[in-house]
Amino acid sequence: MGWNRKILRVDLTRGTCTEEPLNMQWAQDYLGSRGLASKYLVSEIDPKVDPLSPDNKMIMATGPLTGTMASTGGRYTVVTKGPLTGAIACSNSGGFFGAEMKFAGWDMIIFEGRSPKPVYLHVENDRAELRDAAHLWGKSCWETEETIKHELQDPLVRVSSIGLAGESQVFYACIVNDLHRAAGRSGVGAVMGSKNLKAVAIRGTKGVSGIRDFGEFLQATTAAKKVLADNAVTGQGLPKYGTQVLMNVINEIGALPTRNHRDVQFEDANKISAEAMHEKRPTDGKPHLVTNAACFGCTIACGRISEIDKGHFTVKNSPKYWGASGGLEYEAAWALGAANGVGDLEALQYANLLCNEQGMDPISFGATVGAAMELYEMGVLTREQIGLEAPFGSAEALARLAEMTATGEGFGKELGLGSKRLCTKYGHPELSMSVKGQEFPAYDSRGIQGMGLAYATSNRGACHLRGYTVTSEVLGIPVKTDPHVTEGKPELVKAFQDATAVFDSAGICVFTSFAWTLADVQPQLAAACEGDWSMERLNEVGERIWNMERQFNNAAGFTAKDDNLPPRLTSEPARTGPAKGMVNQLGKMLPEYYQMRGWTPEGVPTPETLARLGL
Amino acid sequence: MKVTFKLFASLSDYLPAGTRDNRIELEVEDGVSVAELILRYRVPQRSAHLVLVNGLFIPPAERAQRRLQEGDELAVWPPIAGG
Question: Mind listing the domains of chain B with CATH numbers?
Fold first, then answer.
């Protein structure tokens, strides 16, 4: 059946942990993880709730394939109303925590209320209890994990926690598990901090039971793993070079947002690329990259483990950063690098380590620094206000601002607001490179038209992982489309959005979609889960999830006006590269997209659409 | 005429030893095609997945016909992806 049929409800206000049966009708309609947890969330909270109030809830959820032998089946999601955006938030993480939750016998954990004092949740199979976390408050994610493992005398316990950023409710704080995997976007860590919940520690020894037809499942997962192994991207490219291999590609096509999207190409892109990670440093003769790494059950292993240059100015007096650790991935390298004009790979890794250590989303942090640097160059922000010189390209400023934001020191508190609030405060809201308050990832939509529509309509604010049309528009998977045209993009975006909702809800990694289509996922789900899991059904589930999220956002106060891009992207043409002279033509795509979705011209699902999807 | 040839990721092994920044400047005869230049550096056809001239994608069927011009930048990647 895939599911454990059991959820844990934790009332932090009252300090209770209660077991409940999983709503199996909802499991049939929303599958698991992102979809199923979102169904619980929208059914239990007021869409207009203050995200940082006790009335918001936070759900950690697995999917039916989490913890199984399906490749990449280690994912879990954190679903809540996000403080950065005010929209529904769903942040997805790998590592080993999700599988452990499944092994302990739970499909999801619902946190509600607010604890009167810092606590952490300890789950050991069926037993769950809240424990005092006074001694953990003020500690980093790394220290928290180590301390909990020590006090439980269990090195195999899996820990998800917040660092200082979550405690101080940085609007883009994340939740870190297994040292350097994170539910990263939309500020889910700030919600956890607002609930005085420092960490969740889980130990599960039950394994996964209840697969509908084990023989069929073994056959389906083996066949699907072969597809990943035989594919040049998932079998060779990603393990060797990781996601960061995109740095030179996206720069070459003129879609690498640079210096807060002032430019679309970065002159130092090669210095912060995957290729650079492999090169020996002149300083110590070692390459930055130590090895690749895999999350639970993953046969791709795209993760990066690197070692920083011990003599670099950022760490020469801080031995704790000298060991091999996570990063750099493409998004972090871009946001900390090109977005600020910084081409110092070691400085980027230092800032990335701080993000992992204290729990901050490097995309939103880096992009917010980019906005601050533009305000500084315009003279709107001064050296006195920031506390240091902060021109574009300053590795020193990047490193110092990362420290200040992680610890809430000085101007770091303002950076912790995110770019929208920061730029609005200083009179230039147009300089926030965001949608619905969430900062863009590493693709400039002037050079990749479909991504403009994907960003504008993403249910969690600007995000590449809700409809990653780069796969088709740039990489030619499954078919190559022209990134400079708008024709066909509404259909492409919708197809990616709906399919991604299924991948996320199954409990697997969306990176499998470089080799798999839904037709590869379907036999695995059908073998694992009871019920009808035909292709038609999966497509319907994906579309249902998308519309449910949209309805929540509409009820929270979002309208079609929020399906928009900053004026820089729609009115300032790209200055160089193959997209020179182009802007994003969102206006040409959006009406057709609404129509294809079965929404009104105001972006509201029609009664017919809702009835068709059973919403 | 002068063109720039760039090979990335695992294809960088096909560039001359000591090449920096994944790029070499070449003096080539007029009219050389994209496919010819790729072949000249012994890049296996199946590995030349993403082929860009001045940042614009050249589909496989057009690579033999597409002639390079003075100042063109030809960049090639094997199958790769990210996110």
Answer: 2-77 (3.10.20.30)
Facing A253 at nearest CB: one of B6, B21, B52: B52
pLDDT > 70 fraction of chain A, expressed in percent and rounded? 100
> Do A245 and B12 lie within an 8 Å CB cutoff?
no
Q: B80 vs A245: CB contact, 8 Å cut-off? A: yes
* Nearest neighbour of B79 by CB, restricted to A233, A331, A480: A233
**Average pLDDT value over all residues in chain A:** 97
Question: Of the candidates A399, A505, A501, A426, which has an alpha carbon nearest to the alpha carbon of residue A460?
Answer: A501
User: pLDDT tens-digit profile of A365-415?
Assistant: 999 999 999 999 999 999 999 999 999 999 999 999 999 999 999 999 999
- State the amino acid at position A58 in one-letter form: M
Does the distance separating the beta carbons of B55 and A252 come in below 8 Å?
Answer: yes
The string of DSSP codes covering A293-336 is: E--TT-SS--EEEE---TTSTTTTT-GGG-S-EE---HHHHHHH
pTM over 0.80: yes
Which tokens in the block code for residue A360? 């901050």
Residue pair A547/A39 in contact (Cβ under 8 Å)? The answer is: no
User: What are residue A122's DSSP bridge partners?
Assistant: A129, A201
- The residue of A248, A278, A451, A470 whose CB has the most chain B CBs within 10 angstroms, and thus the best one to mutate to test that interface, is A248
Q: Do B78 and A477 touch (CB under 8 A)?
A: no
The arithmetic mean of pLDDT across residues B18-39, rounded, is 95
Q: Give tens-digit pLDDT for A283-294.
A: 999 999 999 999
Q: What is the pLDDT of residue A376?
A: 98
B50 closest CB neighbour out of A238, A249, A471: A249
Angle value at C-alpha A267, between A264 and A272, nearest 5 degrees = 100
- Least CB–CB distance from B79: residue in A232, A331, A578: A232
Which residues of chain B are within 8 Å of residue A270 when distances are taken between CB atoms? 21-22
Nearest to B83 by CA among A35, A303, A180, A352: A303
